[in-house]
DNA sequence: AACAGAGCCAACCGCTCATGC
DNA sequence: CGCATGAGCGGTTGGCTCTGT
Protein backbone atom coordinates (compact mmCIF):
# COMPACT_ATOMS: atom_id res chain seq x y z
CA UNK A 1 0.00 0.00 0.00
CA UNK A 2 1.17 3.47 -0.78
CA UNK A 3 0.31 6.74 0.87
CA UNK A 4 -3.03 8.47 0.92
CA UNK A 5 -4.09 10.21 -2.30
CA UNK A 6 -2.71 13.67 -2.83
CA UNK A 7 -6.04 15.48 -2.99
CA UNK A 8 -9.49 15.31 -4.49
CA UNK A 9 -8.78 17.03 -7.78
CA UNK A 10 -12.45 17.62 -8.45
CA UNK A 11 -12.94 19.41 -5.17
CA UNK A 12 -10.01 21.82 -5.10
CA UNK A 13 -10.08 25.48 -5.95
CA UNK A 14 -7.83 26.80 -8.70
CA UNK A 15 -6.78 30.23 -9.76
CA UNK A 16 -5.64 33.30 -7.84
CA UNK A 17 -5.47 33.19 -4.08
CA UNK A 18 -7.75 35.41 -2.06
CA UNK A 19 -6.42 37.50 0.88
CA UNK A 20 -8.44 35.25 3.23
CA UNK A 21 -6.77 32.12 1.90
CA UNK A 22 -3.37 33.77 2.19
CA UNK A 23 -4.08 34.76 5.78
CA UNK A 24 -5.21 31.26 6.71
CA UNK A 25 -2.17 29.63 5.21
CA UNK A 26 0.29 32.14 6.59
CA UNK A 27 -1.04 32.17 10.13
CA UNK A 28 -1.10 28.38 10.28
CA UNK A 29 2.45 27.97 9.01
CA UNK A 30 3.66 30.76 11.26
CA UNK A 31 2.23 28.89 14.25
CA UNK A 32 2.83 25.26 13.37
CA UNK A 33 5.08 25.12 10.35
CA UNK A 34 4.29 22.93 7.39
CA UNK A 35 4.47 19.78 9.47
CA UNK A 36 6.50 18.22 6.71
CA UNK A 37 3.35 17.30 4.84
CA UNK A 38 1.99 19.75 2.31
CA UNK A 39 -0.69 17.37 1.09
CA UNK A 40 -2.40 17.17 4.47
CA UNK A 41 -1.99 20.86 5.25
CA UNK A 42 -4.96 22.34 3.34
CA UNK A 43 -7.37 19.93 5.02
CA UNK A 44 -6.06 20.88 8.46
CA UNK A 45 -6.76 24.55 7.91
CA UNK A 46 -9.91 24.18 5.85
CA UNK A 47 -8.55 25.33 2.53
CA UNK A 48 -9.98 23.87 -0.64
CA UNK A 49 -6.59 23.88 -2.28
CA UNK A 50 -4.20 21.24 -3.48
CA UNK A 51 -1.18 20.76 -1.24
CA UNK A 52 1.08 21.54 -4.13
CA UNK A 53 -0.72 24.79 -4.63
CA UNK A 54 -0.27 25.68 -0.96
CA UNK A 55 3.41 24.89 -1.10
CA UNK A 56 3.85 27.04 -4.19
CA UNK A 57 1.93 29.92 -2.68
CA UNK A 58 4.00 29.80 0.48
CA UNK A 59 7.35 29.47 -1.23
CA UNK A 60 6.77 32.06 -3.91
CA UNK A 61 4.68 34.64 -2.13
CA UNK A 62 3.92 34.26 1.56
CA UNK A 63 7.30 33.15 2.87
CA UNK A 64 9.08 35.82 4.93
CA UNK A 65 11.79 37.99 3.36
CA UNK A 66 10.60 37.41 -0.18
CA UNK A 67 11.62 40.16 -2.57
CA UNK A 68 9.57 40.92 -5.66
CA UNK A 69 10.81 42.88 -8.64
CA UNK A 70 13.52 45.52 -8.48
CA UNK A 71 16.39 43.30 -9.52
CA UNK A 72 19.75 44.99 -9.07
CA UNK A 73 22.48 44.95 -11.68
CA UNK A 74 24.52 42.74 -9.40
CA UNK A 75 21.67 40.26 -9.34
CA UNK A 76 21.38 40.55 -13.12
CA UNK A 77 25.05 39.68 -13.46
CA UNK A 78 24.77 36.69 -11.16
CA UNK A 79 21.74 35.38 -13.02
CA UNK A 80 23.40 35.81 -16.40
CA UNK A 81 26.66 34.24 -15.36
CA UNK A 82 24.96 31.27 -13.78
CA UNK A 83 22.58 30.84 -16.70
CA UNK A 84 25.52 30.65 -19.07
CA UNK A 85 27.21 28.15 -16.80
CA UNK A 86 24.39 25.88 -15.73
CA UNK A 87 21.38 26.72 -17.86
CA UNK A 88 17.84 26.92 -16.56
CA UNK A 89 18.49 25.47 -13.12
CA UNK A 90 16.35 28.14 -11.56
CA UNK A 91 16.35 26.66 -8.09
CA UNK A 92 20.15 26.63 -8.02
CA UNK A 93 20.31 30.17 -9.32
CA UNK A 94 17.69 31.28 -6.80
CA UNK A 95 19.75 29.77 -4.00
CA UNK A 96 22.45 32.31 -4.78
CA UNK A 97 20.06 35.23 -4.50
CA UNK A 98 18.59 35.56 -1.00
CA UNK A 99 14.93 36.48 -1.02
CA UNK A 100 14.44 35.54 -4.65
CA UNK A 101 12.36 32.59 -5.77
CA UNK A 102 13.06 30.33 -8.68
CA UNK A 103 9.73 31.30 -10.20
CA UNK A 104 10.53 34.99 -9.92
CA UNK A 105 13.94 34.59 -11.49
CA UNK A 106 12.53 32.40 -14.23
CA UNK A 107 9.89 35.00 -15.06
CA UNK A 108 12.40 37.82 -14.87
CA UNK A 109 14.76 36.02 -17.20
CA UNK A 110 12.12 35.04 -19.72
CA UNK A 111 10.39 38.39 -19.87
CA UNK A 112 13.13 40.95 -19.41
CA UNK A 113 16.73 39.95 -18.82
CA UNK A 114 17.05 37.74 -21.87
CA UNK A 115 15.81 40.51 -24.12
CA UNK A 116 17.88 43.07 -22.32
CA UNK A 117 21.07 41.14 -22.99
CA UNK A 118 20.46 39.50 -26.31
CA UNK A 119 18.39 42.18 -27.89
CA UNK A 120 16.20 41.17 -30.75
CA UNK A 121 17.01 38.78 -33.48
CA UNK A 122 15.24 38.31 -36.74
CA UNK A 123 12.66 35.55 -36.73
CA UNK A 124 13.89 34.18 -40.02
CA UNK A 125 17.27 33.55 -38.54
CA UNK A 126 15.70 31.96 -35.50
CA UNK A 127 13.88 29.55 -37.76
CA UNK A 128 17.04 28.74 -39.62
CA UNK A 129 18.74 27.91 -36.38
CA UNK A 130 16.09 25.38 -35.56
CA UNK A 131 16.10 23.95 -39.08
CA UNK A 132 19.38 24.36 -40.91
CA UNK A 133 19.28 26.08 -44.26
CA UNK A 134 19.97 24.02 -47.29
CA UNK A 135 21.56 26.07 -50.09
CA UNK A 136 20.09 23.70 -52.66
CA UNK A 137 16.63 24.34 -51.39
CA UNK A 138 16.30 20.90 -49.87
CA UNK A 139 15.45 20.64 -46.24
CA UNK A 140 17.32 18.27 -44.06
CA UNK A 141 14.90 16.95 -41.48
CA UNK A 142 17.43 14.55 -40.08
CA UNK A 143 18.91 17.39 -38.17
CA UNK A 144 15.84 19.14 -36.85
CA UNK A 145 15.24 20.15 -34.20
CA UNK A 146 18.96 20.43 -33.54
CA UNK A 147 19.04 22.59 -30.44
CA UNK A 148 17.18 22.57 -27.21
CA UNK A 149 15.89 25.99 -26.33
CA UNK A 150 18.07 26.19 -23.27
CA UNK A 151 21.24 25.23 -25.08
CA UNK A 152 20.43 27.60 -27.89
CA UNK A 153 19.85 30.49 -25.54
CA UNK A 154 22.98 29.82 -23.58
CA UNK A 155 24.98 29.67 -26.75
CA UNK A 156 23.38 32.83 -28.06
CA UNK A 157 24.10 34.62 -24.86
CA UNK A 158 27.65 33.47 -24.67
CA UNK A 159 28.32 34.24 -28.30
CA UNK A 160 26.76 37.62 -27.91
CA UNK A 161 28.84 38.43 -24.89
CA UNK A 162 31.89 36.87 -26.48
CA UNK A 163 31.30 39.13 -29.41
CA UNK A 164 31.11 42.14 -27.16
CA UNK A 165 34.28 41.06 -25.44
CA UNK A 166 36.11 40.61 -28.73
CA UNK A 167 35.55 44.24 -29.47
CA UNK A 168 38.35 45.04 -27.12
CA UNK A 169 40.79 43.30 -29.40
CA UNK A 170 39.52 45.38 -32.29
CA UNK A 171 40.13 48.61 -30.48
CA UNK A 172 41.70 50.20 -33.53
CA UNK A 173 38.66 49.47 -35.64
CA UNK A 174 36.09 51.68 -34.02
CA UNK A 175 33.58 51.21 -36.81
CA UNK A 176 33.01 47.70 -35.50
CA UNK A 177 32.22 48.80 -31.99
CA UNK A 178 28.64 48.32 -30.91
CA UNK A 179 26.81 50.60 -28.58
CA UNK A 180 26.73 48.74 -25.31
CA UNK A 181 24.08 49.41 -22.76
CA UNK A 182 25.09 49.65 -19.15
CA UNK A 183 24.29 46.06 -18.33
CA UNK A 184 26.21 44.79 -21.32
CA UNK A 185 29.20 46.82 -20.21
CA UNK A 186 28.94 45.19 -16.81
CA UNK A 187 28.75 41.75 -18.37
CA UNK A 188 31.82 42.42 -20.47
CA UNK A 189 33.64 43.42 -17.33
CA UNK A 190 32.43 40.25 -15.64
CA UNK A 191 33.69 38.12 -18.50
CA UNK A 192 36.99 39.96 -18.45
CA UNK A 193 37.23 39.14 -14.77
CA UNK A 194 36.48 35.49 -15.42
CA UNK A 195 39.08 35.41 -18.12
CA UNK A 196 41.76 36.45 -15.68
CA UNK A 197 41.16 33.55 -13.32
CA UNK A 198 41.90 30.95 -12.24
CA UNK A 199 44.82 30.38 -14.59
CA UNK A 200 45.08 33.54 -16.63
CA UNK A 201 43.85 31.82 -19.74
CA UNK A 202 43.34 35.18 -21.31
CA UNK A 203 44.90 38.48 -20.52
CA UNK A 204 42.75 41.50 -19.86
CA UNK A 205 40.85 41.99 -23.04
CA UNK A 206 42.03 45.51 -23.71
CA UNK A 207 45.61 44.23 -23.76
CA UNK A 208 44.90 41.40 -26.16
CA UNK A 209 46.84 40.93 -29.35
CA UNK A 210 46.73 38.04 -31.74
CA UNK A 211 49.42 36.02 -30.00
CA UNK A 212 48.90 37.34 -26.56
CA UNK A 213 48.96 34.31 -24.40
CA UNK A 214 51.01 31.27 -23.54
CA UNK A 215 49.25 28.01 -24.37
CA UNK A 216 47.56 26.48 -21.35
CA UNK A 217 49.45 23.47 -20.11
CA UNK A 218 48.00 20.07 -19.38
CA UNK A 219 48.81 20.60 -15.73
CA UNK A 220 46.89 23.87 -15.70
CA UNK A 221 43.96 22.20 -17.38
CA UNK A 222 43.92 19.46 -14.76
CA UNK A 223 44.13 22.01 -11.98
CA UNK A 224 41.14 23.86 -13.38
CA UNK A 225 39.23 20.62 -13.83
CA UNK A 226 40.00 19.48 -10.29
CA UNK A 227 38.80 22.76 -8.89
CA UNK A 228 35.23 21.57 -9.25
CA UNK A 229 35.73 18.03 -8.05
CA UNK A 230 34.14 18.93 -4.71
CA UNK A 231 31.06 17.84 -6.55
CA UNK A 232 31.22 14.19 -5.68
CA UNK A 233 28.43 13.15 -8.00
CA UNK A 234 29.69 14.74 -11.19
CA UNK A 235 28.66 12.65 -14.17
CA UNK A 236 30.80 14.61 -16.56
CA UNK A 237 33.51 17.10 -15.98
CA UNK A 238 31.80 19.33 -18.54
CA UNK A 239 28.25 18.98 -17.33
CA UNK A 240 28.95 21.33 -14.51
CA UNK A 241 25.41 22.34 -13.75
CA UNK A 242 23.95 18.95 -13.12
CA UNK A 243 25.18 18.48 -9.59
CA UNK A 244 26.17 21.87 -8.33
CA UNK A 245 26.37 22.63 -4.68
CA UNK A 246 26.47 26.16 -3.36
CA UNK A 247 30.19 26.35 -2.72
CA UNK A 248 30.89 25.36 -6.27
CA UNK A 249 28.68 27.84 -8.04
CA UNK A 250 31.23 30.58 -8.32
CA UNK A 251 34.01 28.18 -9.16
CA UNK A 252 31.93 26.45 -11.78
CA UNK A 253 30.85 29.72 -13.30
CA UNK A 254 34.42 30.90 -13.56
CA UNK A 255 35.58 27.54 -14.76
CA UNK A 256 33.05 27.12 -17.48
CA UNK A 257 33.48 30.63 -18.78
CA UNK A 258 37.17 29.87 -19.08
CA UNK A 259 36.39 26.64 -20.81
CA UNK A 260 34.09 28.32 -23.29
CA UNK A 261 36.71 30.95 -23.92
CA UNK A 262 39.20 28.15 -24.32
CA UNK A 263 36.99 26.58 -26.94
CA UNK A 264 36.37 29.77 -28.81
CA UNK A 265 39.96 30.96 -28.61
CA UNK A 266 41.41 27.53 -29.02
CA UNK A 267 43.65 28.34 -31.93
CA UNK A 268 45.16 31.21 -30.10
CA UNK A 269 45.79 29.70 -26.72
CA UNK A 270 46.37 26.12 -27.71
CA UNK A 271 43.69 24.78 -25.39
CA UNK A 272 42.69 21.19 -26.16
CA UNK A 273 40.19 19.60 -23.83
CA UNK A 274 39.77 15.85 -24.00
CA UNK A 275 37.58 14.74 -26.87
CA UNK A 276 35.29 12.64 -24.74
CA UNK A 277 34.67 15.64 -22.51
CA UNK A 278 33.79 17.80 -25.47
CA UNK A 279 31.33 15.15 -26.53
CA UNK A 280 29.51 15.62 -23.23
CA UNK A 281 29.23 19.36 -23.56
CA UNK A 282 25.71 19.39 -24.87
CA UNK A 283 25.60 23.05 -25.73
CA UNK A 284 28.30 22.67 -28.37
CA UNK A 285 27.54 19.11 -29.28
CA UNK A 286 24.09 20.17 -30.36
CA UNK A 287 25.60 22.77 -32.64
CA UNK A 288 27.06 20.16 -34.94
CA UNK A 289 24.59 20.75 -37.74
CA UNK A 290 24.33 24.48 -37.88
CA UNK A 291 27.58 26.24 -37.29
CA UNK A 292 27.27 28.22 -40.46
CA UNK A 293 23.78 29.27 -39.61
CA UNK A 294 24.82 31.17 -36.56
CA UNK A 295 24.39 34.82 -37.28
CA UNK A 296 23.44 36.90 -34.33
CA UNK A 297 23.00 40.52 -33.71
CA UNK A 298 21.60 42.55 -30.94
CA UNK A 299 20.28 45.23 -33.24
CA UNK A 300 20.35 45.96 -36.93
CA UNK A 301 23.26 48.35 -36.75
CA UNK A 302 25.84 45.78 -35.76
CA UNK A 303 24.76 43.07 -38.15
CA UNK A 304 27.99 43.04 -40.09
CA UNK A 305 30.06 42.90 -36.97
CA UNK A 306 28.11 39.99 -35.61
CA UNK A 307 28.49 38.01 -38.81
CA UNK A 308 32.22 38.44 -38.57
CA UNK A 309 32.34 37.65 -34.89
CA UNK A 310 30.28 34.48 -35.05
CA UNK A 311 32.02 33.25 -38.13
CA UNK A 312 35.33 33.82 -36.49
CA UNK A 313 34.27 32.00 -33.39
CA UNK A 314 33.28 28.88 -35.27
CA UNK A 315 36.26 28.85 -37.53
CA UNK A 316 38.75 29.20 -34.79
CA UNK A 317 37.04 27.70 -31.83
CA UNK A 318 34.86 24.79 -32.72
CA UNK A 319 36.08 23.30 -35.93
CA UNK A 320 38.77 21.31 -34.25
CA UNK A 321 36.66 18.66 -32.66
CA UNK A 322 33.14 18.72 -34.00
C1' DA B 1 -12.72 56.37 -25.93
C1' DA B 2 -12.24 51.89 -27.80
C1' DC B 3 -9.74 48.32 -29.43
C1' DA B 4 -5.68 45.22 -30.36
C1' DG B 5 -1.42 43.49 -29.37
C1' DA B 6 2.48 43.00 -26.26
C1' DG B 7 4.31 42.40 -21.80
C1' DC B 8 4.19 40.52 -17.44
C1' DC B 9 3.52 37.31 -13.68
C1' DA B 10 0.99 34.09 -10.60
C1' DA B 11 -0.33 29.68 -10.79
C1' DC B 12 -0.89 25.25 -12.90
C1' DC B 13 0.89 21.07 -15.27
C1' DG B 14 3.61 17.29 -15.80
C1' DC B 15 7.85 15.22 -15.11
C1' DT B 16 11.69 13.11 -12.21
C1' DC B 17 13.56 11.48 -8.13
C1' DA B 18 13.11 10.13 -3.32
C1' DT B 19 10.77 7.57 -0.04
C1' DG B 20 7.05 5.07 2.57
C1' DC B 21 4.61 0.91 2.61
C1' DC C 1 11.55 -5.43 -4.64
C1' DG C 2 7.92 -2.99 -6.69
C1' DC C 3 4.27 0.13 -6.48
C1' DA C 4 2.20 4.42 -5.06
C1' DT C 5 2.71 8.86 -3.31
C1' DG C 6 5.29 13.19 -1.83
C1' DA C 7 8.42 16.80 -2.83
C1' DG C 8 10.61 19.60 -5.85
C1' DC C 9 11.57 21.39 -10.20
C1' DG C 10 11.24 23.56 -14.95
C1' DG C 11 8.01 24.55 -18.65
C1' DT C 12 3.78 26.50 -19.93
C1' DT C 13 -0.41 29.12 -19.79
C1' DG C 14 -4.36 32.20 -18.56
C1' DG C 15 -5.56 36.46 -17.48
C1' DC C 16 -4.55 41.03 -16.03
C1' DT C 17 -2.19 45.42 -17.17
C1' DC C 18 0.11 48.47 -20.11
C1' DT C 19 0.96 50.73 -24.43
C1' DG C 20 0.19 52.13 -29.03
C1' DT C 21 -3.05 53.22 -32.70
UniProtKB/TrEMBL annotation:
Domain Myb-like, chain residue ranges per copy: 9-62, 63-113
Gene3D superfamilies: Homeodomain-like
GO molecular function annotation: DNA binding
Designated name of the protein: Transcription factor like
Family matches, as Pfam families: Myb_DNA-binding
SUPFAM superfamilies referenced in this protein's UniProt entry, alphabetically: Homeodomain-like (SSF46689)
HTH myb-type domain: residues covered: 9-62, 63-117
InterPro entries linked to this entry: Homeodomain-like_sf, Myb_dom, SANT/Myb
Phylogenetic placement of the source organism: Eukaryota, Viridiplantae, Streptophyta, Embryophyta, Tracheophyta
Species assigned in the record: Actinidia chinensis var. chinensis
Localisation per UniProt entry: Nucleus
Residue stretches in coiled coil: none
Superkingdom, natural source: Eukaryota
Matches recorded under PROSITE patterns: HTH_MYB (PS51294), MYB_LIKE (PS50090)
Keyword Repeat among UniProt keywords: yes
GO cellular component: nucleus
Keywords, comma-separated and alphabetical: DNA-binding, Nucleus, Repeat, Transcription, Transcription regulation
